[in-house]
Amino acid sequence: MNRWLDRWLTLLLLALIGWAGWSCLHWLWRGADWTVVMTNLPLYAVGSYPEAERWRPLLCIAAVVVLIAITLFGPRQGGWRRAIPLLWSGMAPLGLWLLAGGLGLAPVGTQSWGGFSLTLLLTAGSGMLALPLGVLLALGRRSDLPVLRGSSTAYIELMRAVPLIAVLFFGQLLIPLFLPPGVELNRVLRAVLAFALFAAAYIAEDVRGGLQAIPPTQREAAMVLGLSPRQTLQLVVLPQAFRVALPSLTNQAVGLLQNTSLMAILGLVELLGISRSLLANPAFIGRYLEVYIWLAAVYWLACTAMALLARHLEIQLDPVRSAR
What's the predicted TM-score (pTM) here? Predict the structure, then answer.
């Protein structure tokens, strides 16, 4: 009796899932009006960037996509493997140069930056600042110096107790009050600093977990080999700690990308800001489902790409699996 009941319940659930899936696909293909997305793809990509210079942020996005494809599907042996980290290191300065201009390109103010290119810039810039700061905080929290350990712990606990939106408001509204007269930071840089200061506290805890996973015998073996404390930290401890903390650091990177949508509340027109401005247009009133489904698809693709890159890096850092 129970076996027949389980079978009927399974068939019923499968039928309901099939019906729901078919209804969604039918609406996506027949019922939805994707005009609001198709006619505004340039806005989603580059925001209000000057039309004559839109090739610059588009080139930046294309370079990121190509580099992701090369990293995931390109050759894994030889010179390519050593060149890929250098290419990734050069992406941030290349993207900043393309967006901001200078050195042969016409300058474009940050008030014109927007769309997916701004989302990538906020994520990459804040991540590059947050990672080294988080490592220093993790090392400081494990330091034998009471002042350094106490200040690092206080900073981490304070940042973890404050909501991110409050930190962003602080970055946008209060940072200029603490700057000397004549010194001004644009809104994008203030947002990058606020994201970095917030994410560094969480990265510090992830790295500290990786450091705690390293057995003391690793340091003892390094001392026997004659390595200095700095060499032990650089060559033995940190590489293993990063390998252990990589899944947690990936979660932080994905969360950082998603949290950039909060900047729409503060006036920066990244992906969510573009969507809100489009929905305020009388020509697209009521197109909420299409806009937010498209937005969810873009974020899903970006987060999936980050997860695949982290998975690829995890395999490369595993000497057993990378040798296969």
Answer: 0.86
**8 A C-beta contact, residue 129 and residue 192:** yes
pLDDT, one tens digit per residue, over 12-30 is 888 899 888 888 887 778 7
Question: What is the DSSP secondary-structure string of 233-256?
Answer: IIIIIHHHHHHHHHHHHHHHHHHH
Domains and their CATH numbers in the chain: 109-322 (1.10.3720.10)
Torsion, Cα 103 105 107 109, to 10 degrees, reads: -110
Query: For the segment 287-304, what is each residue's pLDDT rounded down to a tens digit?
Result: 888 888 899 999 999 999
Q: For residue 192, what are the contacts with CB-CB under 8 A and spacing of at least 6? A: 121, 122, 125, 126, 129
Burial code of 254-277, b = ≥16 C-beta within 10 A, e = fewer? bebbebbbbbbebebbbbbbbbeb
Q: What is the DSSP letter of 322?
A: H
Nearest to 169 by CA among 66, 71, 266: 266
| Separation of CA 89 from chain center | 15
What is the C-alpha separation between 94 and 66, in angstroms, rounded?
A: 14
CA 111 to chain centre: 22
The four Cα atoms 85, 94, 193, 69 give a dihedral, to 10 degrees, of: -50
- Using CA atoms of 78, 80, 81, 84 in order, give the dihedral in degrees to the nearest 10: 160
* Burial bucket for residue 117 (CB in 10 Å: 0-12, 13-18, 19+): buried
